[in-house]
Design brief:
Elements (H helix, E strand, L loop, with lengths): L6 H11 L7 E4 L9 H16 L3 E6 L9 H14 L6 E3 L4 H13 L3 E4 L3 H6 L18 H13 L8 E4 L14 E5 L13 E3 L1 H11 L4 E5 L6 H10 L7 E5 L11 H9 L14 H7 L3 H11 L10 H15 L2 E2 L1 E2 L2 E6 L5 E7 L9 E7 L1 E5 L3 E2 L9 E2 L3 E4 L4 E9 L5 E8 L17 E2 L1 E3 L4 E8 L13 H4 L5 E8 L1 H5 L5 E4 L3 E8 L2 E9 L7
Helix pairs in contact: 2-11, 7-8, 11-12
Bound molecules: adenosine-5'-triphosphate and magnesium ion.
């Protein structure tokens, strides 16, 4: 047996050892009411990953018991995102597939005196539920006979009552210390068209009642969910016991993934989209999987992050910097290097004529990557910040009379700066040293600085996009998201890029040397380089 990596796997090992279960089955249970976000990636990592580890299976289970918020558009987006992460589900199942059986089970509970139709309003039910220190008050409808309950429940189903006029409640214990067991509502009336069952139903089961049944009917052995369901587990187990499930699925809860500077609630993300604060669900600043994909973050890096963050039982908030560090590490090993200049000034090599190709290392950390040819010439662009007329001490970039290496090419010495009427440098005139060619340097000249550059003759114009976090740091704990939203989080620059970037396949992630990790895409013939993650690691692992 595989070694347990976390407490969930320890429980599973126990269940396998005791013979309670033989083959492991889990399910990933999204509600199709929005797009998946990075928190869901964690849930997938736990559900799919655990099944994979034990050679078991994981279903994709759409929890569609709430017709007012669910849409087919979301179902399709959810499928796409799971596939992108690379997970394969065994079966695609919907809670609504089981509506008939769930209904039959409710009739059974009624016949056995374990459920009753209640006429109290939602408010009245809340008011009589009691508190953590005081028991609840029993409903005056609690002692209806099974015959009467069955008749009323069938009338509910037949559409005789309006929304909220009646409901079906489990008959458990109004004095239970666990409020979830105080005669919870298990069916409600809702005259609403369902995205799959249409108008067949006007009563819908509640999550806490439907979920254990759906788990059981799918043969789920371990129902892995987040900690907020811990207090609901007694109800999950009650349903299993009363309906005689064998083997009974086991619910195990783990901590949600929370990240600083990211909103993780679908409801709030939806608001951002609807108010136009972002370009859409797949805006590169969004924590949705569609957004992260559009940002250029590789699926592998997200799974790597989930693995490194671990599966725990304690809620906590993870630094966004940690996530970024994982993405950076992942890309550092795999992303081809390229050069682009964000704020260009012209560099002219006065003693150079003609042009030649130099060898550029694609990725020194990737043993399979080799070199590619780039064209060197007399007129180049370098970064404005790589030249100084008034250099501080120990300045290793270019200064008048000083030397620096042009990446993969030659060492140059700056001789003269041409300035415009405002004193702004517009051109740096240099001398190059023919014996200093990279890989065959016999010049003996020392140059500490290595500068990135592009060839002015062959370079492409690019639009460079950089992003800040969508949420500013909180000023105090618990500050509302809406006060932290950073609407000016997208910054656009024009840049000069190597032609190789123009020719690269859309979606490729590059390390733009000394600038950051960027995704290449073409928008209407225009080269766009959009930031995936900065180069600087300001997270302290
Ligand atoms: P939201 O509050 O964003 O709408 P949700 O929990 O309502 O999230 P569901 O579609 O019901 O979203 O979630 C599907 C599964 O993903 C659930 O089992 C849920 O516990 C899990 N999940 C949701 N958010 C996170 C998170 N941040 N970390 C880990 N698991 C999560
Ligand atoms: Mg939910």
């Amino acid at each position: 047996m595989a070694d347990a990596e976390n407490f969930i796997q320890q429980f599973i090992d126990e269940d396998l050892a005791s013979g309670k279960v033989s083959a492991i089955r889990t399910r990933f249970p999204p509600e199709p009411n929005g797009y998946l976000h990075i928190g869901h990636a964690k849930s997938m990592y736990v559900n799919f990953g655990t099944a994979l580890k034990y050679g078991g299976t994981c279903n994709l289970f759409f929890d569609d018991t709430n017709p007012s918020k669910e849409k087919t558009e979301f179902v399709d987006a959810i499928r796409r995102d799971i596939e992108w992460l690379g997970y394969k589900w065994e079966k695609e199942v919907y809670a609504s597939d089981f509506f008939d059986v769930i209904y039959d089970y409710a009739e059974r509970l009624i016949r056995e005196g374990k459920a009753f139709v209640c006429d109290l309003s939602a408010d009245e039910i809340r008011e009589t539920r009691g508190t953590l220190t005081e028991p609840g008050v029993e409903s005056p409808y609690r002692n209806r006979t099974p015959e009467e309950n069955l008749r009323l429940f069938r009338e509910m189903r037949a559409g005789k009552y309006r929304d909220g006029e009646k409901c079906l409640r489990a008959k458990i214990d109004m004095a239970s210390p666990n409020i979830n067991l105080r005669d919870p509502v298990i069916y409600r009336i809702l005259h609403e068209t369902h995205h799959r069952t249409g108008d067949k139903w006007c009563i819908y089961p509640m999550y806490d009642y439907a979920h254990p049944i759906c788990d059981y009917l799918q043969g789920v052995t371990h129902s892995l969910c987040t900690l907020e369901f811990e207090d609901h587990r007694p109800l999950y187990d009650w349903v299993g016991v009363e309906l005689g499930f064998s083997p009974k699925p086991r619910q195990i809860e783990f901590a949600r993934l929370n990240l600083t500077n990211l909103v993780m609630s679908k409801r709030y993300l939806k608001k951002l989209v609807e108010e136009g604060s972002v370009h859409g669900w797949d805006d590169p600043r969004m924590p949705t999987l569609a957004g992260l994909r559009n940002r250029g973050i590789p699926a592998g890096a997200i799974l790597d992050f989930c693995a490194r963050a671990g599966v725990t039982k304690a809620n906590s908030e993870c630094e966004i910097g940690y996530f970024e560090a994982v993405v950076r590490d992942w890309l550092n090993l795999r992303a081809p290097r390229a050069m682009a200049v964000v704020d260009p000034i012209k560099l002219t090599i006065t003693n150079y004529e003609g042009e030649e190709e130099v060898d550029f290392e694609i990725n020194q950390l990737d043993p399979s990557a080799k070199t590619r040819k780039i064209r060197f010439g007399k007129t180049l662009f370098i970064e404005r910040s790589d030249f100084s007329l008034d250099p501080p001490p120990k300045y290793h970039r270019l200064k008048i009379g000083g030397c620096a290496r042009l990446k993969s090419a030659y060492i140059v010495r700056a001789d003269e700066a041409v300035t415009d009427a405002n004193g702004e440098v517009v051109e740096v005139k240099c001398t190059y040293f023919p014996e200093s060619r990279s890989g065959a340097d016999t010049s003996g000249i020392k140059a500490k600085g290595v500068l990135h550059w592009v060839n002015a003759e062959t370079c492409a114009d690019a639009e460079l996009r950089q992003y800040d976090h969508l949420l500013r740091d909180a000023d105090y704990a618990g500050q509302d998201f809406s006060e932290r939203i950073n609407l000016e989080s997208e910054h656009i620059f024009s840049a000069k890029a190597e032609p190789a970037l123009f020719e690269a396949e859309d979606g490729t992630a590059f390390q733009l040397m000394r600038t950051g990790y960027y995704k290449k895409c073409a928008e209407g013939g225009k080269l766009v380089l959009s930031e995936i993650v900065s180069l600087k690691d300001n997270f302290n692992k």
